[in-house]
């Protein structure tokens, strides 16, 4: 069971709802997390149970980022709106950087999200074992 987070900017929320609805059969077997409004809308549209954090601009991105920093998140689908300035852009940038540092798969558009979810559905999403096997000095989420 993986820990998966959903984040979507306002103009991407409908796209996220449609995506999660289409792959509900995949997501139902995992622990799901989301920022506030996105999570609420997904739960209303599906039968999925989602742990909701605060809205992104109010700190939800940072709450998910804290899980990433602790190596306690496995996959993030973050449908960003690249054409709209976001008031919490530093938080977004920090989350993206943390995903790179920890090796957490992060989809920022629907095409990449679909590739990752299809891999998850096939059962060949064993990235965590590979990261720990080939990255010297990392054991149990800690840098030694």
Automatic annotation (TrEMBL):
Q: Which Pfam families does the entry link to? A: MGS
The residues responsible for catalysis, as annotated, are 61 (proton donor/acceptor)
EC numbers: 4.2.3.3
Q: Which SUPFAM superfamilies does the UniProt record give?
A: Methylglyoxal synthase-like
Q: Name one GO molecular function term.
A: methylglyoxal synthase activity
The MGS-like domain is annotated at 1-144
Q: Which InterPro entries match?
A: Methylgl_synth (IPR004363), Methylglyoxal_synth_AS (IPR018148), MGS-like_dom (IPR011607), MGS-like_dom_sf (IPR036914)
Q: What class of enzyme is it?
A: lyase
Binding residues annotated for substrate, in chain numbering: 9, 13, 35-38, 55-56, 88
What UniProt keywords are attached to this protein's entry?
Lyase
Record's catalysed reaction(s): dihydroxyacetone phosphate = methylglyoxal + phosphate
Similarity annotation: Belongs to the methylglyoxal synthase family.
The UniProt function text for this chain reads: Catalyzes the formation of methylglyoxal from dihydroxyacetone phosphate.
Q: Which PANTHER family match?
A: METHYLGLYOXAL SYNTHASE (PTHR30492:SF0)
UniProt name for this protein: Methylglyoxal synthase
Q: In which organism is this protein found?
A: Paenibacillus enshidis
Q: Which gene encodes it?
A: mgsA
């Amino acid at each position: 069971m993986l820990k998966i987070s959903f984040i979507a900017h306002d103009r991407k929320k409908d796209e996220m709802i449609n995506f999660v609805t289409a792959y509900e059969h995949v997501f139902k077997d995992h622990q799901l997390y989301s920022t506030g409004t996105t999570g609420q809308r997904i739960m209303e549209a599906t039968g999925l149970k989602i742990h909701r954090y605060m809205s992104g601009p109010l700190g939800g991105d940072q709450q998910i980022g804290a899980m990433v920093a602790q190596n306690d998140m496995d996959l993030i689908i973050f449908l960003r709106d690249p054409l709209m300035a976001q008031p919490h852009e530093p938080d977004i940038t920090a989350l993206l950087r943390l995903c790179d540092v920890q090796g957490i798969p992060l989809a920022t558009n629907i095409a990449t999200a679909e590739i990752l979810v299809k891999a998850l559905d096939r059962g060949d999403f064993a990235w965590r074992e590979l990261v720990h096997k080939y990255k010297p000095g990392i054991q149990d989420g800690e840098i030694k």
